[in-house]
Amino acid sequence: MIGLGTYAFFWQHSDRSPEPLSLRGALEETRALDVDLFQICDFAPLEAMTDAEVHDAAAAARDLGVAIQLGTKGVEPERLARHLALADVFDARLVRSMLFSPASRPSAAEAEAWLRAALPAYEAAGVVLALETYEQIATADLVALVQRIASPALGICLDPANVVARLERPVDAIELTAPHVVNVHAKDFAFDRQPGWVGFTYSGAPMGAGLHDYPHLLRTVHPRERGIDEIVEHWLPWQGDATTTIRTEREWTRRAIETLRSAS
């Protein structure tokens, strides 16, 4: 299924927007785009919500017919337990995370121990934990960790854009992770020369206009055949003013949805 994530509304959620979009607003925008899935990913206001506010947000998603996935950073036991509890409220079947959080950088052995302790509860609840590919850990090491633990509730969230910062090739990350992918972050990316030809900027691009060989991902991972959700995100640079940036963000979202729906 094609879904949207909070990173598709990055500037609309931010305090640089004249009227920052609420979570309910993002859910309503998702429904208006005829999309049935939303990933609440790294969304700070969720962490601060009261239990009543969380239940209200979950009820709004159900009323709109939008399924929910969750996303956080880190694998500390209390974090994983908290997001499993949130998954129960939202009827979410997937939680995306990363090995490191702003507050914790566990060793490989410590992260593995934490995951082994947390995953039986995820298995019992029917919730999958998806660890994202990113530059702070080699893709081969992430795959090896998932293979060692060998839990049906543990897989990989594939974001090929992230691994470039580790000097890994996106196509290599796709091929290495393919058997273990349970979630895809779908965005395009490109390099642009800095003014004066003194380096490059690596950032987002409209879907289909950048360097991401998305057809290769589809051929290799087979997300549609395997029931793996594709979550639209953006790395949209600030466009000089809020009106232009938010308009561009919305245009990128519409283009991404259209491109993914037409891709095969």
UniProtKB/TrEMBL annotation:
Matching SUPFAM superfamilies: Xylose isomerase-like
Highest rank taxon of the organism: Bacteria
This protein's record includes keyword Endoplasmic reticulum: no
Pfam families for the chain: AP_endonuc_2
InterPro entries per UniProt: IolE/XylAMocC-like, Xyl_isomerase-like_sf, Xyl_isomerase-like_TIM-brl
Keyword Secreted carried by entry: no
Entry protein name: TIM barrel protein
Species annotation: Microbacterium gilvum
